[in-house]
Design brief:
The structure is a single chain. By secondary structure, this protein is of the alpha/beta class. Helix content is 39%, strand content 17%. It has a 6-stranded parallel sheet, with helices on both faces.
Amino acid sequence: MWTDEQQREPGPDGSGGPRRRATIHDVAKLAGVSRQTVSRAVNDKGEIDPDTKARVLEAARMLDYRPSRFARGLVRKGTVTAGLVIPDLMNPFFPEVAAGVLEAAEERGWQVVVWDTRTDGAKEREALSVLSHQADAVVGYFKNDDEVLARHLGGMPLVLLERGPHQTRFAAVGIDAAAGLEQGIAHLVRAGHRRIGMLDGDRVEAPGPRREAFLAEVRRHGLPVDDSWVVLSAGHGVAGGEAAMERLLDARPETTAVFGFNDLIAVGAMRAARRRGRRVPEDLAVLGFDGLSLGELVEPALTTLHLDKRRLGRLAVEQVARLRAGEEPLTGAAAWVAPDLIVRASA
């Protein structure tokens, strides 16, 4: 089991290995001062010579030293605090994931600090820098790459949400988009659809897992597909879905079914289709992804690939517990959540 001063971080090959966090003793040795002097310098307390303070702070910077939150008196000794980094708490998907994290953490007697980055990469880095002083581990959504994340971690265990086993060197909990899209596209094909488009909310240079799974499935069924069948949504909300659906219908008016990156985008697609005189599902079938409760409330009710979002959060806490115990993180099917097709009126 790793101590507070030597915490486990997965290695570049994903197998995991100890990475020693710099201690107050290391800073004191490098700066040539006592531990008490280091404590006064980094916490800006007590009388200390300015040159000595500058030398201590430079040593701390060189060693990437992060004062223990216990030493700073922030929590009771023995209490575990997990940081939860969420990209958008206004999106109803993420509070459900957070609920799973909070439930599992409470069962272990842990505290949770929640940080909303608003999908901003700079805020992600700020969150890690701050949480490195306040938390024992971090769980969350990050778009920064592994090397950037590692520079801001301060040696803490990190568990990434919605990352596959080959997409990161850190412990992760992934979504099996391929298993979901296999069900979803097969359902649309059985209903007679041959011209299926996608509204993608993953605005990255390379296709994300949901778009990759969509393309793989439509090709497997021998359906026509090229770049014109996939339209990027300006956001993950209803308005983004509406605008993207308008562009898809302009580019491909023969479309008879559409897959939305998430349920909010799919609801926007239904709104835009009705505005263009397309009946759902008679003229256009709509398939969502995530399984939000609002899918049951819209008219027609949304067919979706339902994801157990609380289980996603609970698995992330299990990963943290394993890392803190010095155990290997879960991998393979044990670290994935697969969606289930829920058929309703929209498709």
